[in-house]
Records
---
Amino acid sequence: MKIAVIGTGYVGLVSGVCFSDFGHDVVCVDKDPSKIAKLEAGEVPIYEPGLEELMAKNVEAGRLTFTMNLAEAIDGADAVFIAVGTPTRRGDGHADLTYVMAVAEEIALAAKHYTVIVTKSTVPVGTNRQVKQVVRKANPDLDFDVASNPEFLREGAAIDDFMRPDRVVVGVQSERAGDIMNDVYRPLFLRDFPVVITDLESAEMIKYAANAFLATKITFINEIAALCERTGADIKQVSKGMGLDGRIGNKFLHAGPGYGGSCFPKDTKALARIGQEHAVPMQITEAVIKVNDEVKRRMVDKLLELCDDSFNGKTVAVLGVTFKPNTDDMRDAPSLTIIPALVGGGAKVRVVDPQGKHEGEALLPGVKWMDDPYKAARNADLVVVLTEWNEFRGLDLSQIAEHMVTPRMADLRNIYSNKDAKRAGFDSYVSIGRAPYEASADQED
Ligand code: UDX
């Protein structure tokens, strides 16, 4: 079958590459000539493990091509996927649908035969019906259907998530469109991955509800972590004890410096906005947005306390700036709140991140980028673990502590423990939701 994917951003590119790996003929379309040139040269503009190899394999097999020409790409396509961005609109928190609607109109004007227009971008409830109207208005004679097919892949694990999904959600209005979507995903259905067929609105709602729920789960555990710090409980033990309850589940219960990324911040804001619009305030989601901002700010206070209430003149080595490991994405990363506070307070900040420099350089002015955590920590006053890259999990902490001015560590991802810090000779070690370690207090014990 022939598929066109419009938009070669994160979701579009991963979907296009994976569809071609299913054996479909796929054309990926983008308006940005530099992106298309890169893709045609075999380069992936984003960092995603395994994507470049899978892309090369399918390009070589002749199943995957790239173009700027939308009309040519959709000619003969059984399904056209819209996978363009839906950023948060400035001012009102709404998802900006300008790109989605512009593409819908373009498809309508170029299409010559029946096609299913599928929205993969995360769009507010009701958008697919709007897409339908836009298409009908632009080309009243066109025979078409719309479908909603939200994507749940995680950055850094995108290919595996696409190929082995917990579920595929498809919102359709007609049997004909349902059959085509069934063919698109046949390789997954044959392997018994569950499919949830719904109406358009439910499919749209599932995506927002799922992301808001996950953001809530993280924020809940972050709030419990703050309380653990005051009460002497240990968040790791608490998370484990909670997560073993099958109704709760152990995933997304890792306390940290607050969620970030391209989806949770954007989708929680959009859901809150949709709620306001329908006079059903999403009070829990609104609280989550507020608390998550507070969590990020609380991290700054934590560091300040560790620096004897002043960053001025301190040298701080920050390990990790991306919003999570295995990505180069900096969108809404906690580092964007924490590092400017350090720099603004007069600290000299050194930064190490396996993939973050490219995007991070423009976003984090005034920091020094380094490649080696040991060198970054040399003569520093404080080491901060901000992203749990594997590279940072197995550091020789004694070697780090030995060459610091004052061996102090803030481990905002709980990848080490008080025991590790004590053994390595740190003066102080703070983490999330656990009692801090103080060498001086320890000796008194
Ligand atoms: C998320 C959803 O998981 C995915 O289904 C959706 O399609 C897009 O949004 P992603 O943004 O790639 O995916 O990242 P994810 O792994 O979900 O992490 C999001 C944020 O939450 C990160 O900042 C991460 O560090 C944080 N997080 C996650 C925690 O702080 N604790 C956790 O237990 C899990």
---
Amino acid sequence: QNAWKLADHPKLPKGKTIAMVVLDGWGEARPDEYNCIHVADTPTMDSFKTTAPEKWRLIKAHGSAVGLPSEDDMGNSEVGHNALGAGRIFAQGAKLVDSALASGKIYGGEGFKYIKQSFDNGTLHLIGLLSDGGVHSRLDQLQLLLKGAAEQGAKRIRVHFLTDGRDVLDGSSVGFLETLEKDMSNLREKGVDAQIASGGGRMYVTMDRYENDWNVVKRGWDAQVLGEAPYKFRNAVEAVKKLREEPKANDQYLPPFVIVDESGNPVGPIKDGDAVVTFNFRADRMTMLAKALEYADFDKFDRVRVPKIYYAGMLQYDGELKLPSQYLVSPPEIERTSGEYLVHNGVRTFACSETVKFGHVTFFWNGNRSGCFNEKMEEYVEIPSDVGITFNVQPKMKALEIAEKARDAILSGKFDQIRVNLPNGDMVGHTGDIEATVVACKAADEAVKTIIDAIEQVGGIYVITADHGNAEDMVKRDKSGEPQLDKSGKLQILTSHTLKPVPIAIGGPGLKAGTRFRNDVPTGGLANVAATVMNLHGFIAPDDYEPTLIEVVDN
Ligand code: 3PG
Ligand code: CO
């Protein structure tokens, strides 16, 4: 009990209403025509920087600052919200899987022993995202796992892949697939019956999140488990090339297909006695499939046939649900998050976003844990996202609705912290549609205005930041920062996140005079925000938290 008690901040009072706003995919980059935040009309976000520079700064949101393997790793929402909420930097899934593979420890673990039971008479199926994006999975990890599984005795292997185009350039799927094909053929030369069995685009097949649209998972189930899909091909590279020829086709949204043998039968449906590994390390877009694969009671769609399998995740995706129960690598243990501390110290919290980002300000924020810490102190509100569209056709998304919910929560006086995620810059940025992303950024800026106006009314404080970059750069660039053209002279659109830092601004009438950013934490990153917010609630953060970004000078 007492271990949760936070010390009082010597200078900052308790009881202020604090709006904690995360703009998803909102980084700081050079102001040119491919910087949608620069192009968009964003007076509110601009004003923080120009009118109160001592209360505005940039913080790191990528690479080691958020627990990723290298400085070449762009930030993402999982690691970003983990860092924001936890106040410390944890070695993340990508890194943990790297070391488990490098040391070989992965093969000695419970999870691997479990799936190994299929090796004598069954097939090992690997399902996941095929790219080197490093956000949900990595191709080189899949390659090592394939090699290792064969060495450990897997005799029949099937890969069910999802094309990316969201964390990597659109069209890069073909190259990744060719690499995979080569590995599969090497395995075959060594006597392993290894084949690619099915495929589809990540946003249309399998990788939905937060139960936005179960049809996405069903399409994958039909192809992967039942061996049924609208398209059948003899070869996976051919399949992707062919399907990409359709007008408007792209890697993210390729339809599902299965690979068939010479008699037209699917080469890799999942059967009794087989093993399945979902090789993504990131949770949000694998949890739904994990439920379909693991739960006996399941009513989200008709599974038709439920094979008795040995299923393991690359990681355990949900520590609270213990899902999946078997996994190859232990997930980071993100405990004692700021949310849990604050609840124990009397801070009442309201968290809100729309479905596609809802888990970011709840599940990820709380260290990959679903649900509230204390239902009497917390209220989590999810606004249903539009389903079945790409967000460039609806770039305003639910920004206004989220802002209004936040405003009402602020004015209600029932909460001390009102936490929201505004998805626009990220979700529309991922479509690669520059015009729509400009509209998206304006909508997010307007939402911020609504929220800070409410804070103004109640004498509160706002903290506005972002989880990683996206909308501030929409083209692939060369080393000097100039847009890079492809072989045919076309601009290469960047659908992914970036390596850019993100802004953080504090303000509002409740902010004690003399509060400003310290200048002795120049390398501050997202993990420094939790201690900062704890200070603003009137507390000092636990010793092992990354240092606060603020100081209070007497004037
Ligand atoms: C996605 O899952 O949509 C992308 O791979 C990463 O986006 P996010 O990290 O912003 O959710
Ligand atoms: Co994103």
